[in-house]
Automatic annotation (TrEMBL):
Gene3D superfamilies, sorted: DD-peptidase/beta-lactamase superfamily
A GO MF term: hydrolase activity
Matching Pfam families: Beta-lactamase
Classification via SUPFAM superfamilies: beta-lactamase/transpeptidase-like
Protein name per Swiss-Prot or TrEMBL: Serine hydrolase domain-containing protein
Organism encoding this protein: Saccharothrix hoggarensis
Domain Beta-lactamase-related as annotated: residue spans: 18-375
UniProt key word Glycoprotein: no
Lineage: Bacteria, Bacillati, Actinomycetota, Actinomycetes, Pseudonocardiales
Keywords tagged on the record: Hydrolase
Presence of the UniProt keyword Hydrolase in the record: yes
Amino acid sequence: MTVEGTCADEFAEVRAEFERNFAERGEVGGGVHVTVDGETVVDLWGGDAGGRPWTEDTITHVWSCTKGATALCAHVLASRGELDLDAPVVRYWPEYGQNGKDGTLVRHLLAHQAGLPAVREPVPPGGMFDWELMTDLLARQEPFWAPGTRHGYHALTFGYLIGEVVRRVAGASLAEFFEKEVSGPLGLDFWLSLPEDLEPLVAPTIPAERGEAVPTMYLAAVTRRESMQALLVANSGGYVAASNTREAHAAQYGAVGGMSNARGLAQMYRPLALGGEYNGVRLVDEARVPVMSAVVTAGFDAMLLAPSRFSAGFMKSVDNHYLPAADRGVVLSEDAFGHSGMGGSLGFAAPASRLSFGYVMTKMGPGVGVNERGQSLVDAVYRALGHRQAPGGLWFR
């Protein structure tokens, strides 16, 4: 297998770890992209993309990395003064205030504190592709906990909750807003609704192998039939099974439906690593970036059943090294914020280092965080920047 692309000499270890992923860690196809001070220092790809070579233009399903794009849309509006994260959701979405949710704040939606990590009413086959159906279901549902009192990963509902607020404020769908305000101006290979003519560029997802480590969340779904975890897994309208279809790629699914590549992920975060602006395109004002990075909630996650940390819309570094591999998070510097995707993809910004990073792959690994393939690339980047890792902790200079 030949790795193609470019890599600055000082980041040679990143290339070595990427090649090692293919040789030793079961990588099938993927890419990694890194920018520092706005300049691309790593742009590598290789492997198989569904029976054909992975090329510079190949894209794939980035799963929950999509949440970073969706959260960014909310922060673009907040930076412009059009959306107040501390306002009640009902200010923008009046129907949401049913069944004890009238006090829910926009910040609660972003930080997975809204109490709606799963849907109680049956979702029909393909229902997750119906925006109005899903937002209506969520608007009338009673939360699993009082909003703001705890957090639990909103794996499949996050995109509808934030996306509907964006739609109400901006007067455009989430996908339209993202294209107009983010991906279009930055020239990103990133879509929240993939145009049909780009379908030939898609490398299909390969599920994790059976017998690999299983996250505690999924074990709970099997053993506790009435749990939130069981509802998440069994009441998704069949999305996971349909995720490699044209219908799924075209659908607007702001939690897990994004289509991109490593370059698209890293370059979306590039302005955020540089104070909110890159090459004349300002996404957010400079004062907004620390807000995007600041931890809002941390501790035991009611859905994942393991520790997690979130800012307003983004994952933060969490080192669950003492847990089984399937429950581990991702180790980053404390300033970093971004999002991983099911199977191991990752995108983030680290403003203190003026760094942005993207990694995607087709062969999914076990667990809900970033597995050895992605973490090895992150570690190599930080080492190249002169960072050290505290024992069992974060990266620092």
